[in-house]
Amino acid sequence: MSTLPSRNPDPSQTPGLSPEAKARLAAVVRSLRERLLKDLGDAVQSTYRLSLPLEQADLDEEAWRKRKRLEAWLDEEARGGSRGGKETLAQARERHLQGIIKSAAATLLNRLVVLRQAEALGMVRLKVLSGGWESPGYREFRAFAPDLLADETEGYAELL
Predict the structure, then answer these.
(1) 15 or 75, which is more confident?
(2) Residue 12 in contact with residue 76, Cβ under 8 Å?
(3) Tell me: the pLDDT tens digits for 96-142?
(4) pLDDT tens-place string over residues 41-100
(5) How distant, in Å, are the alpha carbons of 1, 40, 44, 148, 156 from that of 151?
């Protein structure tokens, strides 16, 4: 009878990362975090055309409603929240916008990690993350929901 390796090895028996490897890993994680925040921020800016006044943004009805709600929330937070004596309303709005972008990034990342773990443990019928656009789950999604494939991600973002 063979002995299988334990799923939870004794930490004292596993090699650790060298200080150099830890520093490189930390740098990569910081870089990826900055990229995620920038990409989500850019997506919010372009989706809702925040650089333009709402009346000039030329948004479809759904995007217009969502932007209106976003602006109302930002205004409420900026007026009601604690601001430093030198922070303007516009600066407070921007701070709150960056806060919700950071929160959305954390939520997205957590969901992706949980989904990937579920795939690795065989808890989902069809894998979606593993294999990306070639994954069985995405291919099935394409077959059943062709109307949702019109965006720049070909529906992959909608699926996730």
Answers:
(1) 75
(2) no
(3) 999 999 999 999 999 999 999 999 999 999 999 999 889 999 999 99
(4) 999 999 999 999 999 999 999 999 999 999 999 999 998 877 777 889 999 999 999 999
(5) 54, 16, 15, 7, 9
CA angle 41, 37, 141 (to 5 degrees): 80
Structure tokens at 57: 């943004």
**Spatial CA neighbour of 109 closest among 38, 45, 48, 32:** 32
Q: What are the sequence ranges of the domains in the chain?
A: 24-124, 125-160
Side chain identity at residue 45, one-letter code: Q
pTM given for the model? 0.75
Whole-angstrom distance, CA of residue 46 vs CA of residue 49: 5
Encode 5-14: b = buried (16+ Cβ within 10 Å), e = exposed: eeeeeeeeee
> Would you list the DSSP string of 31-80?
HHHHHHHHHHHHHHHHHHTTTS-GGGS---HHHHHHHHHHHHHHHHHHHH
For the beta carbon of residue 64, count every other beta carbon within 10 angstroms. 15
